[in-house]
Amino acid sequence: QVQLVESGGGLVQAGGSLRLSCAASGIAWSINVMGWYRQAPGLQRELVATITSGGNTNYADSVKGRFTISRDNAKNTVSLQMNSLKPEDTAVYYCNAGVVLIGGTITNSWGQGTQVTVSS
């Protein structure tokens, strides 16, 4: 019912910036929480940042102060502004949405991911 498409990944030098975007489309009653997760090779997928429909945010300690998550509820998009990037930020970044479907059931949707590579 809901599809998520990420964009904005790429190659960047350490200390540089990237902006990731995620667009949700489809049919749902509401999207309560949207967020970004990342996964490096051989590691578990980890939380980067989340944002509720009301604008409340949550950040991993490793990115706090460097990354900013934002959301446009009308457009059902979520963005992640990443500044002061470090090689340790290199990972596949996934968009996530907690979706309330018509009928009241809740599902968790994921995008296909976008690669972010930070060179040292």
Features:
120 residues, mainly beta, seven-stranded mixed beta sheet
Report Rg: 14 Å
Order of helices and strands, N to C?
Answer: EEEEEEEEEEE
Largest sheet: 7 strands, mixed
Helix content: under 10%
Average pLDDT taken over every residue: 95
Number of helices: 0
Give the overall silhouette: elongated
Task: Work out the number of β strands.
Answer: 11
Describe the protein:
Strand 9 and strand 10 (106-110) form a beta hairpin. Strands 2, 4, 5, 6, 9, 10 and 11 form a seven-stranded mixed β-sheet that branches. Strands 1-3-8-7 form a four-stranded antiparallel β-sheet, with no helix packed on it. It has 120 residues and is mostly beta strands. 0% of the residues lie in helices and 60% in strands.
Question: How are the secondary structure elements laid out?
Answer:
Elements: E1 2-7, E2 10-13, E3 18-26, E4 30-39, E5 46-52, E6 57-59, E7 67-72, E8 77-82, E9 91-100, E10 106-110, E11 114-119
Parallel strand pairs: 2-11
Antiparallel strand pairs: 1-3, 3-8, 4-5, 4-9, 5-6, 7-8, 9-10, 9-11
Summarize the structure.
With 120 residues, this protein is mostly beta strands. Helices cover 0% and strands 60% of the residues. The radius of gyration is 14 Å and the shape is elongated.
